[in-house]
Design a protein that fits this description.
There is one protein chain. With 193 residues, this protein is α+β, with helices and mostly antiparallel strands. 39% of the residues lie in helices and 16% in strands. The chain has eight helices and eight strands. The chain has helices at 8-15, 20-27, 31-39, 46-56, 60-64, 84-94, 125-134, 174-187; strands at 99-102, 105-108, 116-117, 137-142, 146-148, 151-153, 157-162, 169-171. The strands form three sheets. The chain has a three-stranded antiparallel β-sheet with strand order 1-2-3, covered by helices on one side. Strands 4-7-8 form a three-stranded antiparallel β-sheet. Strands 5-6 form a two-stranded antiparallel ribbon. Strand 1 and strand 2 form a beta hairpin. The N and C termini lie far apart (40 Å).
């Protein structure tokens, strides 16, 4: 029996309780193609590897190697899903603060002082400005009905990309997109708690 060269396709698919048919539909290949990849009768090309990596939220190295973490990342939220005050919480974390959630609001707690709210990075240009400058953020408007990062976006938005980083993020507005892109560049694509 041949040994598959991409052993983690089956593991990731099973971890997410997906059938081969459902995975094939999700990434745009035939059911038979998934079967062949999992049985080692063929292997995905670079475009298919990229699609699979994005779909599963792992790197291509993790997909083809033995670099998968012990726990399933599929349950962890993605930076690209954060918005509002939750997004501000993680931006503050990336900025070196140690925010806490207090009554649903992110705050900075300093012993002997009243908690102070985390800055509204995702809605205030003056707070986000230094990050935008440091990361030389580039913006591209995006019309509705266009897929981005494997998701069909049915509303208009903005794509933000730091100049020196290969990833980009979509947002409903410039600041949401920029703070998501910043977090992906600074911390990675998934929240590791």
């Amino acid at each position: 029996m041949p040994v598959t060269r991409v052993p983690n396709i089956k593991k990731l698919r099973n971890d997410r309780e997906l059938t081969q048919k459902r995975l094939a539909e999700a990434i745009g290949v035939t059911h038979r193609t998934i079967v062949r990849w999992e049985q080692g009768e063929g292997e995905p090309g670079i475009n298919d590897l990229l699609t699979l990596a994005r779909y599963f939220g792992v790197s291509i190295d993790q997909l083809v190697g033995e670099l998968l973490p012990d726990r399933d990342l599929g349950a962890l939220p993605k930076m690209s899903d954060l918005s509002g005050r939750e997004l501000d919480f993680w931006v503050a974390t990336a900025q070196g603060d140690s925010p806490e959630m207090l009554d649903g609001e992110p705050v900075i707690v300093v012993p002997g002082q009243n908690p102070r709210p985390v800055l509204a990075y995702s809605s205030n240009w003056s707070y986000a400005g230094p990050i935008l400058s440091e990361y030389d953020m580039h913006f591209t408007p995006m019309p509705s009905g266009i897929p981005f990062d494997g998701i069909l976006r049915m509303e208009k938005g903005v794509i933000a990309r730091p100049a020196a980083h290969p990833t980009a993020a979509w947002g409903r507005n410039h600041l949401e997109a920029a703070m998501r892109a910043y977090l992906i560049a600074a911390l990675g694509e998934r929240i590791m708690t």
